[in-house]
């Protein structure tokens, strides 16, 4: 490349990029891509991050009315990390730094199924795709030896449509910029309008990626009440489906939410959205909005060459015998919209809410043979009317008639509230309702020790 700096420091590479590469790539972008641009984050920390972080070279959306001098993590579509030395390619520090940026993107854009990222270490480029089960890396390329692949990758990033870049195709933006409409391509579901502000979201990569929204029927007036909760998550494929358990609940059962609907999320082509088949099983060809195709050949995970000297971190990153965990994206709609347990108005209110939740727990076990297995402070909510409280989050629930372990890799429960016998290492299939009652006790104990009668921290 003409003008490539002799010393590939970040500032020099950025100057070269915007002098040489940007004029080549940007004029060739189609009209559909004019709302995105490559920008350096500069010395300013990006807004709304979970920590003080900034990427080096980002592909961002040009959102109307945004501060052009300081970017928001919600604008970032693709993130890049620049290093001066080619020897840093594939090293722990570069990978983990990139993963931290991706964590911020997943936190502010929880509707993303995956995030594309890249490193440019000297003249060596490597592309990554992060999803809810980890990351897959391409083989490295030398941008001088493979200039067309380098340009093709940059152009491909900028011309991908929303679904190709990783956004959930069942969610679309409304024009009022205050709410987003949910236009499902999945089966047996009506349209709902959801509040843009998240009820729950997670700043993490390899996780269920749970996100919850307030919702109401789409035809409801703008000033109507939010009466539903829509919950999206990437459940482990070997886990039972939460909606299958809640579908057994009769309306009006004390201590439990009202089930409305659930299903797996489907792509616009009708494919079930999962990590193995949909996210990682897709073609690596990048089709621009103009119909042109650019191929960036990704290698399977085992070809991600480890560095010559393995640190404790890289020993874990490069153990190729550890296969990724398949996750399936599911959606659940339920009612009512509860309040956090710490919003209780008196100790009596608190105890009544816990009592109702215990009754709901008992009903699920006695009537339906379901053990919850994750009773915690955040999984007991206050009912907006009556009764006083209800139990949610049956993500880790099991049927007592289940013949064997699920095969999930992790111990089940929220650590602070787990029963002593479970923490002591009993087999996971031995988790029984008594352990959950012990967890209810720890929830009460936690509140009594750490919060006053108004729910404020002591």
Structure description:
It is an enzyme of class 2 (transferase). It catalyses: L-threonyl-[protein] + ATP = O-phospho-L-threonyl-[protein] + ADP + H(+); L-seryl-[protein] + ATP = O-phospho-L-seryl-[protein] + ADP + H(+). Residues 285-306 are annotated as: Disordered. The chain is α+β, with helices and mostly antiparallel strands and 458 residues long. The protein folds into two domains: 10-166 and 281-325, tt1808, chain A (Alpha-Beta Complex), CATH 3.90.1570; 339-458, Transferase(Phosphotransferase) domain 1 (Transferase(Phosphotransferase), domain 1, Orthogonal Bundle), CATH 1.10.510.10. The chain has ten helices and 21 strands. Strand 14 (285-287) and strand 15 form a beta hairpin.
Question: Which tags fit this structure?
Answer:
single chain; 458 residues; alpha+beta; tt1808, chain A; Transferase(Phosphotransferase), domain 1; 10 helices; 23% strand; elongated
Tell me the fraction of residues in β-strands, as a range: 15-25%
Radius of gyration using CA atoms only = 24 Å
Global structural class: alpha+beta
Just name the CATH architecture of the largest domain: Alpha-Beta Complex
* Beta-strand segment tally: 21
The portion of residues assigned to helices is 10-25%
CATH topology assignment of the largest domain? tt1808, chain A
What is the number of helices? 10
CATH class division of the largest domain: Alpha Beta
Largest sheet: 7 strands, mixed
As for the number of domains, it is: 2
Q: List segments where confidence is low: pLDDT < 50 over at least 5 consecutive residues.
A: 177-188, 283-310, 312-318
Distance between the termini: 62 Å
Mean pLDDT across all residues, rounded?
A: 83
Shape: elongated
Enzyme class: transferase
Subunit structure: Component of the EKC/KEOPS complex composed of at least BUD32, CGI121, GON7, KAE1 and PCC1; the whole complex dimerizes.
Biased composition (Polar residues): 285-302
Catalytic activity: L-threonyl-[protein] + ATP = O-phospho-L-threonyl-[protein] + ADP + H(+); L-seryl-[protein] + ATP = O-phospho-L-seryl-[protein] + ADP + H(+)
